[in-house]
Amino acid sequence: MTSTTIKEQFQQDGYYVLKQMFSEVETAELKLEAQRVLELNGVDKSGVYVGMAVASPRFKEAAAHPLLVNALEAIIGDDVVFLSDKVVFKNATTDFGSPWHQDYPYWHGSHKFSVWIALDDATPDNGCLRIVPGSHHVDEEHADFSDREEGFSNRLKDEAIDPARIVDLAASRGDAIVFHDLLFHSSYPNRSGKDRWALISTYKDGTLEDPVYSWAKAAFRVNGER
């Protein structure tokens, strides 16, 4: 697919899928490295761990994968900056899902772009992403859930989601889903008895001004890493 086509599809739908960006072997190595990082940091239950590229050079390398950088340049422009990454790990006994939300309320500033990489096959049974195509064009009010222990303090109201427009994004290990920070998205709970791990990275247009983000400890310009 040409850069023009990628850009046009992203502008219309708010997301783009890179099939098999990593091979099965590469994906297995990334998951093993993620498990090593979690063990070193004493993390032993399902959840989220932020700062994989800080913890391991393997994830900084993954953040600048040539196929990914080419797609991001088509979508963002010539100055693509990686900000941070996290592993979201739903293990075999995990049954939580993510509520409908947008990412933008969590950082503001310029619009950012997330890359969701499947480290396990992701299906509706074990917690794949759900999105509403084109919803990044909608200015939607959020409900305040800041008192909820499970996180996601900014959530979309139920009436904001049109069930007829929802698309489930099942993914194979190694697939990458790039999406806009205003795209409505959620995930199914994991009720499969199998792992569903994902690596999620955040990027921005380096020509735009932003606050200093305390969580962007491994920020770098990916175009210069090839």
Written description of the protein model:
With 226 residues, the chain is α+β, with helices and mostly antiparallel strands. It has one domain (3-225): Sandwich (Jelly Rolls). It is built from five helices and 13 strands. Strands 1, 2, 3, 5, 10, 12 and 13 form a seven-stranded antiparallel beta sheet that branches. The longest helix is centred in the first third of the chain and has 17 residues, at 24-40. The protein is globular, with a radius of gyration of 17 Å. 36% of the residues are buried. Residues 146-150 have low confidence and may be disordered.
The assigned structural class equals alpha+beta
CATH architecture: Sandwich
Averaged pLDDT: 92
Main beta-sheet annotation = 7 strands, antiparallel
In total, the number of strands is: 13
What is the oligomer described by this structure?
single chain
What's the helical proportion of residues? 10-25%
Number of domains: 1
State the main characteristics.
226 residues; alpha+beta; Jelly Rolls; seven-stranded antiparallel β-sheet; four-stranded antiparallel β-sheet
A few lines on this structure:
This protein is α+β, with helices and mostly antiparallel strands.
